[in-house]
C-alpha cells in the first residue's frame, strides 16, 4: 500500500499492521493531521463496503475515517467522515462503486494521535454468469405407426424410405426409423393391388 507522511516507523507500529488480518496489531500515525493508506486492487472491482477496526483507547484513536476511490484521475469521497470512538468495527457502504484503487483516510481527535488496527474493503459478490447456450438435442431413432387400408382390391405393399414394412391383417403397421442427421425426411408409400399409390412424408428438423 502507498501511504501519506505521518505514519510511525516504530517497530511493531508500521502501516503493514493495518492490513495483516490481525485486529490485535496496530499501525500508528504520530500526527493530528489526516493520514491515508492507498491500495491498488490490481483490476477494477465493484465494491460493497469497507470497515476499520480499533480499540479506541489510550492516546491513539482513529477518531474519524472515510474512504476515497480513484476515478478519471482524481480521488473522490465514497462518503463523508465517520466517527469511530468505541472498540470494534466501524463499517460503511460503498454503494456499488467500481474502481481499481481505494484509500482510507483517518484523523485522530484533537490533542491525540491516530491508531488503525485493521482496514478491510469488500467487493460485491460475483453473480454466476448467465448461460445463454441452448441445450443440444439429438435424435437417433423414432418409431412410427399407423394404419393403411384400401377400399378396392387391398394393399399390396407399404414402404418406408423404400424399405418394405409389414402390414398386419387389420391394416396396422409399425416401423423404426434411424435418424442420421437433420433435417431428416421419411417418406411412406402405400401401393394397392391395382398399382395406385399414396405417399406421406415426415420431416424432422
Radius of gyration over C-alpha positions, nearest whole angstrom: 39 Å
The count of helical stretches stands at 0
> What coarse outline follows from CA principal-axis ratios?
rod-shaped
Q: How helix-rich are the residues, as a percent range?
A: under 10%
Biggest β-sheet description: 8 strands, antiparallel
- What fraction strand? over 45%
Total strands: the figure is 17
Q: Which runs of at least 5 residues are low in confidence (pLDDT < 50)?
A: none
Terminal-residue CA separation? 61 Å
The class by helix and strand makeup works out as mainly beta
Q: How do the SSEs run, as a string of H and E? A: EEEEEEEEEEEEEEEEE
- What's the overall average pLDDT, rounded? 89
Structural summary, described in words:
The protein is built from no helices and 17 strands. It has strands spanning 2-3, 27-29, 35-54, 60-61, 63-71, 74-77, 82-84, 88-93, 98-107, 113-116, 118-123, 141-147, 155-160, 163-164, 172-178, 184-192, 197-204. Strands 1, 3, 5, 6, 7, 8, 9 and 11 form an eight-stranded antiparallel β-sheet that branches. Strand 13 (155-160) and strand 14 form a beta hairpin.
Amino acid at each position: 500500500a502507498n501511504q501519506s507522511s505521518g505514519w510511525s516507523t516504530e517497530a511493531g507500529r508500521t502501516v503493514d499492521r493495518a492490513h495483516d488480518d490481525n485486529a490485535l496489531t496496530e499501525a500508528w500515525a504520530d500526527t493530528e493531521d489526516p493520514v491515508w493508506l492507498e491500495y491498488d486492487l490490481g483490476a477494477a472491482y465493484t465494491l460493497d463496503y469497507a470497515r476499520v477496526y480499533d480499540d479506541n483507547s489510550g492516546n491513539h484513536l482513529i477518531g474519524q475515517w472515510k474512504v476515497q476511490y480513484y476515478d478519471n484521475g482524481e480521488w473522490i469521497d465514497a462518503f463523508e467522515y465517520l466517527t469511530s470512538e468505541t472498540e470494534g468495527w466501524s463499517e460503511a457502504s460503498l454503494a456499488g462503486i467500481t474502481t481499481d484503487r481505494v484509500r482510507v483516510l483517518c484523523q485522530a481527535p484533537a490533542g491525540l494521535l491516530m491508531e488503525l488496527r485493521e482496514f478491510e474493503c469488500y467487493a460485491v459478490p460475483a453473480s454466476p454468469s448467465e448461460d445463454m447456450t441452448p441445450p443440444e438435442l439429438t435424435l437417433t431413432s423414432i418409431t412410427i405407426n399407423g394404419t393403411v387400408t384400401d377400399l378396392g382390391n387391398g394393399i399390396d405393399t407399404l414402404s418406408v424410405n423404400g424399405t418394405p414394412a409389414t402390414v398386419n391383417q387389420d391394416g396396422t403397421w409399425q416401423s423404426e426409423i434411424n435418424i442420421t442427421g437433420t433435417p431428416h425426411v421419411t417418406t411412406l408409400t402405400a401401393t394397392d393391388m391395382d398399382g395406385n399409390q399414396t405417399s406421406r412424408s415426415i420431416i424432422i428438423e
